[in-house]
Protein: Kelch repeat and BTB (POZ) domain containing 2
Organism: Paramormyrops kingsleyae
Amino acid sequence: MSGGGKSAPVNTDYAVSLLEQLRIFYEQRLLTDVVLLAEDAEFPCHKMVLATCSSYFRAMFMGGLSESKQTHVHLRNVDPATLQIIITYAYTGNLPITDSTVEPLYETACFLQVEDVLLRCRDYLVKKINADNCVRMLSIGDLFSCTELKQSAKRMVEHKFPAVYKQEAFLQLSHELLLDVLSSDNLNVEKEETVREAAMLWLEHDMESRSQHLSSVLSQIRIDALSEVAQRAWFQGLPPNDKSVVVQGLYKSMPKFFKPRLGMTKEEMLIFVEAATESPSDGPAGGPAHATICYSLQAEKVYKLSSLPGDLQKVGTLVTPDNDIFIAGGQVPLKTSVVNHSKGSKLQAAFRLVDSFFWFDAQLNVWVAKTPMLRARVRPSLVHCAGHIYAVGGDNTGGELSRRTVERYDCEKDEWSMVSPLPCAWNWSTCVSARDCIYLMTHDLTYRYTPRTDAWVEMASRPTSRCFASAAAFGDLIFYVGGLHVASNSGLRPCTVSADGSSVDVEIYDVSKNEWRRAAGVPIKRYAESCVWAAVLLDSPCIFVRETHANERARYGIYQYDAEADRWHPRQAVFERVLWDLGRDFRCAVGKLYPSCLEESPWKPPTYLFAPDGSEEFEVDDAIVPLPHV
């Protein structure tokens, strides 16, 4: 006997061999001692193998009761095909799960108490939750008392409530689950009228049997949050005999002050991915440290989003029309290597390109891993078009063929598939979606992709040739802003339309006319060419620009386009004391987020503002202000 109480390491080769021999015994029906019966199918098995993976069979065969001596076990209401999958797993450890098999597999594993299958099915279902199936997943999680599945599905129901409450699955919710959803503070609704309509649709779906729940359902509506018009129309559509008794009683008993639903607190924000936060020596491999932050235009505050997973850098970013935030691709640092130069040694970072894909859970402020892309990409262009997400090309993606590739993400199936590649391989291209088509712009070229035909078609070329530009679609117009002119004799130079570099170049493409035209430049005082981003803010074309050259401290501005006058006007000042230097490598997107779910970023003045004598005052926005109390 070995000393110390330490067990010997498992011989994995022997374990694999033993499992393989058991599989052969099962397939050849050797030494089987029990037959499972499901409908008309028979499955000769070994009690020891079944008892090893199933608590149900363990109790049956080892409980000392009459069932332990049975040679045939009838399993009622069990699908034979599903039972075959579980038996195969018991003998091989292999468990193929698909969208069509996961639900019956989960139900059967729950009945037979096969814990490993339950956990893998649960993880599969949680990962597959989307707007189309979240209500059904909520019911499944409740039926089988799966807390993780129920909670994840409920969060998605809350997040997508304006879309899901009209689904058939919502109308079939149990009374208890309906109350749980309608009472939630986290519903993503901008008006309480949406909750009222959902309650009425559920009641009217089967008014005869559900009239008994009228009071409990309507009591979840925050009546005082309804508009005056909605309150006056409150009696419409209710059973005549219940109008005066139930509704008036509810209205009198409801509090006059309500807690707003989460969706009522949304604020439109500028989202900055990979914003520089520290000095160059503080980040990985001696580079700058980065953070993902957002800036509320309404409150003029900065909030922190959860850091990108796994030290990701140079990702593609997308905010969908439904306000879902995604990041894709990028690179992760591996190690640092020393490069010798004539003037000394220098640290050089090594990176690995990745195919990662994450969705941002705005309620929990966490990044949730989704199915990775089919190819690793650095800063791919992410576009939402006709209900799908497209990842187009990418910088330094490895070879011309890789840079040409385009893949499409199916949100419902959580799957990627390849579509028609780009006609040519370009770095620094820009993509936007307009009128259910994708438009790609690079140099002086424009291409359109139509999902219905899966084809790229060359469109009108631009008067200028430039790259690194930013683009945003507004109706039938695409605004192409900033970037660097591509000149064959002098390389790249900033896109400005004035001699002193004080106006950012803008071109507009009319989708319906297939025409480009030059628009008025954006009048700014200072311009760092790589830091200008086109966006749609509060239903208007705007740009966010860093108005500072590299040797000056950062200043930012937001400009709005006046189509009638063909002019850009300053829309909102972004004060230095709120938004400090984001570096020159950030990416900007626009979305609506919940301030209560984010961490407010405390303001800390950078060291270069302090006077050498240690004074308690410093200069901000050309004014002397006191140091804030910490």
The chain has 17 helices and 35 strands. The chain has three domains: 13-182, 267-333+350-426+585-606, 429-487+499-574. The mean pLDDT is 83.
